[in-house]
Design goal:
There is one protein chain. By secondary structure, this protein is mainly alpha-helical. 72% of the residues lie in helices and 1% in strands. The protein is built from 23 helices and 2 strands. Strands 1-2 form a two-stranded antiparallel ribbon. The longest helix is centred in the middle third of the chain and has 33 residues.
């Protein structure tokens, strides 16, 4: 059977099917990494060559050339200007990624069912930026660093082969998860949590099988739902003839259907990371002890679908990118001795938006997500202000936060999917901008509550 016929059987284009074959091949490639003889250097060579080989088969030679540009930008910055290498790499690598997004019109290509190497470039961009910042942190005084900076800082410049292997290892550049250079080095050298000890080596078999079964289930759900809820229907005459409930329900199903594609991708990545051993994150304190694989997990499906508030979404969706954004954008924008606010949140979401590409839908989605999280925080403050005796009322507020999250996330995610400004506005207008109005209302409500809180405390003090 020809590749075109196999691709048509699952409803994807030939390039996407070719990518999927290479992507699934990361599972056996990761397994063989465990048995590479010759010590760390041999493992680095294996990681670099298999990663480059899979990229060539999936995207062609140009992909590795683009990866090489990002690697050279970062490595050159670390070699020539250690004191500023973090910021230099951030702006140069992110700038090159954005230029490639614009040149290849990657968002339109993905939307039409195509694929290119810019998705992998997105992952490598995060890796080279974090490595540069950590190398920069290694030259700073300890009292100036946060705990995460102390944990991940690098005191020496990685060798070229270590650096290339870190960027391409186990096919993680295809779809993540993102990990730290220090963790990669510890893993290959058998240090840190990977040190041989009296504890048994963590078995990857059970968690890997679970991840593979989860991937198969997610792909099945996606292939079933996606043809039934085409995104193109939003805005056509039939859609416009529906009432508000039907239009919003359709938007929800479009968003719900699309999420299963990402669940599939991240489940395959999880299986690869677990098999390699790089996804291992330590042992539980329970009896008997159990291995943990948080380094491999990039999504908590139930956590996303049943998130009690919008604040929980970054903790359960694209987990390692959310962690990266917190450590390398959000935390670094907070001045010492001051608390983070809406500016840091908005700036972080803006970086996430341009990292995805310069499409209006991305920008609007991530600005919306900043509003969504702030509105959810306001609901939480409301919940906290209610006295403990009103348990039923507090439960109703918690339920309202869940409903708020579902409504605003559904509304906002349409922009992420349709991308163009006209289609985004058309979709938002069809549901009366409910996902923009609700966050603003709750943010204003929350600000009123904050202003009234000091007055209440002073009154109690007088009494």
């Amino acid at each position: 059977m020809k590749m075109e016929e196999m691709a048509s059987m699952i409803g994807v284009s030939r390039p996407v099917f070719q990518f999927l074959l290479c992507f699934v091949a990361t599972i056996p490639v990761s397994l063989f990494h465990r048995f590479v003889p010759g010590g760390p250097t041999a493992k680095h060579l294996y990681a670099a060559t298999t990663g480059a080989g899979l990229s060539y088969l999936a995207f062609g030679l140009s992909s590795n050339l683009h990866f090489l540009v990002l690697i050279l930008i970062s490595y050159g910055s670390m070699t020539l200007c250690r004191k500023r290498c973090g910021l230099l790499t951030f702006f140069l690598a992110m700038g090159y990624l954005i230029a490639c997004h614009v040149y290849y019109m990657s968002g339109d290509l993905w939307k039409e069912g195509g694929i290119d190497a810019t998705g992998s470039m997105m992952v490598i961009t995060l890796k080279v930026i974090s490595c540069a910042f950590n190398y920069n942190d290694g030259s700073l005084k300890e009292r100036r660093l946060r705990d995460t900076q102390k944990k991940n800082r690098l005191f020496r410049l990685p060798s070229v082969i270590e650096y290339v292997a870190y960027c391409l290892c186990c096919g993680t550049h295809f779809a993540g998860p993102v990990y730290e250079m220090k963790d990669y080095l510890d893993w290959t050298q058998g240090k840190g949590i990977w040190t041989r000890s009296e504890k048994p080596s963590p078995s990857p078999i059970g968690p890997t099988v679970k991840a593979i079964l989860q991937a198969g289930f997610c792909m099945g759900v996606y292939l079933y739902l996606d043809p039934r809820y085409p995104l193109e229907r939003i805005g056509d005459p039939v859609y416009k003839s529906w009432g508000f409930i039907d239009r919003f329900s359709y938007q929800y199903m479009c968003s719900f259907s699309a999420r299963w594609k990402y669940y599939f991708i991240w489940s395959v990545s999880e299986a690869s990371m677990i098999l390699s051993g790089l996804g291992f994150s330590g042992w539980t304190n329970s009896v008997p002890i159990e291995a943990q694989w948080r380094g491999a997990k990039n999504v908590d499906i139930l956590g996303v679908e049943f998130a009690k508030s919008a604040v929980e979404i970054p903790l359960v969706w694209n987990i390692h990118v959310s962690t990266w954004l917190r450590h390398y954008v959000y935390d670094r924008l907070v001045q010492k001795g001051k608390r983070p606010g809406f500016f840091q949140l908005l700036a972080t979401q803006t970086v996430s938006a341009v990292w995805h590409g310069l499409y209006p839908g991305y920008i609007i989605f991530f600005v919306q997500s900043a509003l969504m999280i702030s509105g959810s925080k306001a609901i939480y403050r409301w919940h906290q202000s209610v006295s403990g005796g009103k348990r039923m009322f507090k439960k109703m507020i918690m339920l309202s936060n869940f409903a708020y999250t579902v409504i605003v996330l559904t509304y906002s995610s349409v922009g992420f999917m349709v991308l163009s400004l006209d289609e985004t506005i058309t979709a938002y207008e069809s549901v009366f901008y409910i996902g923009t109005i609700l966050p603003v209302v709750f943010i204003l409500f929350g600000s009123i509550m904050i202003k009234s809180k000091p007055h209440t405390s002073r009154a109690r003090k007088v009494k």
